[in-house]
Design a protein that fits this description.
The complex is a heterodimer of chains A (about 170) and B (about 280).
Chain A (H helix, E strand, L loop, with lengths): L3 E4 L5 E4 L4 E5 L6 E7 L4 E7 L8 H6 L5 H16 L4 H5 L2 E7 L12 H13 L8 E4 L6 E5 L5 E5 L3 E4 L1
Parallel strand pairs in A: 1-3, 6-7
Antiparallel strand pairs in A: 2-5, 3-8, 4-5, 4-6, 8-9, 9-10
Chain B lengths: L2 H14 L5 H9 L7 H9 L2 H11 L13 H26 L12 H16 L9 H10 L2 H10 L3 H9 L6 H9 L3 H11 L4 H9 L10 H16 L25 H22 L1
Helix pairs in contact in B: 1-11, 2-3, 2-5, 3-5, 4-5, 5-7, 6-7, 6-13, 6-14, 7-12, 7-13, 8-11, 11-12, 12-13
Chain lengths: ~170, ~280
């Protein structure tokens, strides 16, 4: 089966149960990719979140919920629930493995510029009560990650210019 | 090549760089002039037939989804605004240099140009937040040019990208600039400054190349330089860098003395930069 790449841009998300597909998102910077691996249905979801809180722009949140942690996670989980046929987030949490990558920062950052850390915290606060806290993460540091996940394999790979590629 | 040889080779390449077109030089210089308006831009563009046709092509590009085709250059310039005309002119005059693949940074063709454009947009949006007046159009132009030096020194950095990253992570260099200097005797900031001098661009543009990572070291235009410093970091945080050196620089926290920028302000700026970049990316990248 040929492997097709589905590319997820900033503030977008994608879900897939197409076993020949890979989902990919480029150059996360301070943005965070959350990867949902639903083992029972062999489905995968990936969201590229840019900012923690949608309150700064309800307009954009309405058009592109994936942009923010608080609107993005419910939006992708809704699609995952439909795709996997589990219906609710409770059902979805069973058999779900969540991984997280990104949230980089600049050297000598202060709190204001540590958007990566704020993104990670906001996402975890949303995921934990759902029983979907990340099982693995590759976050922080001063590099911009590209993430690829294979639907069939459920394997997540991270790459970065000058650092090569490794598995999460 | 050893360090001295590298340094000489970089200097030679800068000295041999082709000059910018007269219209591009004039447009880049215009931003630094206190009093100027769209009429001055129109006058410069009109004298350059190729640039005129480019500007008309840009203003009529599908991304703007205009109802009617624009034929008059005056109309085109007023619709696009100074920043997009300057971008068109620089892309035309130095596109090969600014869009080239940066082997030394492990960056693909076009990455430097995308980073430059995003930094320029961020700089213009940050300019009103400076505590002393900073001209937004000038900040935009400085953002477009700030990493110019990478296009030249990249060739001499060769296969060092992975090694430099590792050395910084191990604490052997404080940042990427220091590593560049250790290998080449010159860093991309200084190289950019030299290129601006070669092109006879106004001092604020040359200084913003030279000091965009260390704005405190500058004697003048600190407000402008801090704006470019932060704009560069915003572009890198948003994921648009130039390969291996992305985010391998230090934030100068003294920016708070020069700009009013809190967490909410930064979030809104990042959002606005993303929106504006999405609008022009298809046209210029």
């Amino acid at each position: 089966m040929t492997s097709n790449n589905k590319v997820v841009g900033v503030g977008e998300f994608a879900v897939s149960a197409n076993q020949g597909e890979r989902i990919k998102t480029f150059a996360l910077g301070s943005c965070v990719a959350v990867i949902f691996l639903h083992k029972p249905s062999r489905s995968v979801g990936l969201i590229h979140v840019a900012l923690p809180d949608s309150r700064i722009s309800p307009d954009i949140a309405a058009k592109r919920p994936g942009y923010f942690a608080d609107t993005g996670i419910p939006a992708i989980l809704k699609e995952m629930a439909v795709l996997t046929g589990t219906g609710t987030s409770n059902g979805l949490a069973r058999g779900m493995v969540v991984k997280m990558a990104g949230g980089a920062n600049v050297m000598d950052t202060n709190n204001t510029f540590n958007i990566g850390k704020r993104n990670i915290l906001a996402l975890k606060k949303i995921l934990w009560p759902l029983g979907m806290g990340p099982a693995a993460e590759d976050v922080g540091g001063g590099f911009s990650r590209t993430v690829t996940v294979g639907v069939a394999s459920g394997r997540v790979f991270i790459s970065c210019a000058g650092k090569g590629e490794w598995e999460l | 090549m050893n360090r001295q040889e590298n340094e000489r080779a970089v200097a030679r390449q800068i000295a041999e760089l082709p000059l910018l077109s007269s219209s591009a030089s004039q447009l880049l210089a215009l931003g630094a002039a206190a009093d100027h308006g769209l009429a001055d831009i129109v006058r410069i563009v009109k004298h350059d037939a190729i640039l005129t046709s480019r500007v008309l092509k840009v203003v009529n590009s599908a991304a703007y989804a205009r109802a009617v085709e624009i034929h008059a250059i005056e109309h085109a310039v007023s619709l696009l605004g100074e920043d997009m005309v300057v971008t068109t002119a620089l892309r035309e005059a130095a596109g090969l240099l600014l869009a080239k693949r940066l082997t030394g940074y492990a960056a693909e063709a076009g990455e430097l140009w995308r980073h430059s454009l995003k930094t320029a947009l961020a700089a213009k949006l940050l300019a009103p937040k400076a505590r002393s007046p900073v001209n937004g159009e000038l900040a935009f132009t400085c953002g477009l040019l700030h990493d110019l030096g990478k296009a030249v020194i990249s060739d001499y950095l060769e296969q060092t990208a992975g090694k430099i990253r590792q050395a910084i992570e191990q604490g052997r260099f404080p940042d990427y600039l220091a590593a560049e200097r250790a290998i080449l005797g010159i860093d991309h900031a200084e190289a950019g400054h030299k290129i601006c001098r070669r092109w006879q661009l106004p001092a604020p543009l040359a200084e913003s190349c030279r000091h965009h990572h260390q704005p405190a070291a500058a004697e003048r235009w600190q407000g402008l330089l801090y704006v470019v410093h932060l704009a560069d970091i915003i572009a890198m945080l948003s994921g648009i860098g130039t390969g291996a050196d992305t985010l391998q620089y230090r934030l100068d926290r003294d920016y708070e003395r020069h700009l009013e920028l809190d967490e909410a302000g930064l979030n809104s700026t990042m959002l606005a930069v993303e929106r504006e970049f999405a609008q022009v990316e298809d046209i210029f990248c």
